[in-house]
Amino acid sequence: KAGVTQTPRYLIKTRGQQVTLSCSPISGHRSVSWYQQTPGQGLQFLFEYFSETQRNKGNFPGRFSGRQFSNSRSEMNVSTLELGDSALYLCASTVGRGQETQYFGPGTRLLVL
Amino acid sequence: AQKITQTQPGMFVQEKEAVTLDCTYDTSDPSYGLFWYKQPSSGEMIFLIYQGSYDQQNATEGRYSLNFQKARKSANLVISASQLGDSAMYFCAMRESDGSEKLVFGKGTKLTVNP
Fold it and tell me: What residues of chain A score a pLDDT lower than 50?
């Protein structure tokens, strides 16, 4: 069974630009969660999508948004990039019943210049 | 609010020895799950072990075991027979029963295995 995949793996953007990251969950998983990891703040929850609906949201500004498609693939978008958005963005998938393990993808490393 | 505390920023262990990584948590929810993940320098989070709040026995997965002390709100990870490949960051995380899959992570412990 294929694992969680994330594209692209690396990205360099400049301030003010926007970026879209993609996450394909494990087959059969309907929940996708996104996390931001920085040296200063550690791992922080961004949002979770389940069956195309946002089920939970972390404390991030509205520049961070996401969506989920009918095939459970998810995208997150960051508009008007700031230097502080430089981070490793991880997505995780699970079946979504609240009892199973979350499996993570390899992450997307975003550098904002 | 739920919180995970990992008090050891870094740990060193000799190859083939056992090591314990500490994790304490705080929650008012009677139903919760506790996880340990390993993060090598490549960045991917690798699931190691899970303990449910109602599980009667401590979880074990190969060389990994979880020392779960509910009354003390601690969930320490024990790695037996350490290997050089165990050198990585280790994160403790908790999920509450709020209907979502949100995980709250600790700051992590960097484990270095010396030959």
Answer: none
- DSSP letters of chain A? ----EEE-SEEEE-TT--EEEEEEPPTT--EEEEEEEETTTEEEEEEEEETTEEEEE-S--TTEEEEE-TTS-EEEEE-S--GGG-EEEEEEEE-SSSSS--EE---EEEEE-
Measured between CA atoms, how close is B95 to chain A, in angstroms?
8
Is B43's CB within 8 Å of A98's CB? no
Count of A–B CB contacts within 8 Å?
A: 66
* pLDDT tens profile B44-102: 999 999 999 999 899 999 999 999 999 999 999 999 999 999 999 999 999 977 777 88
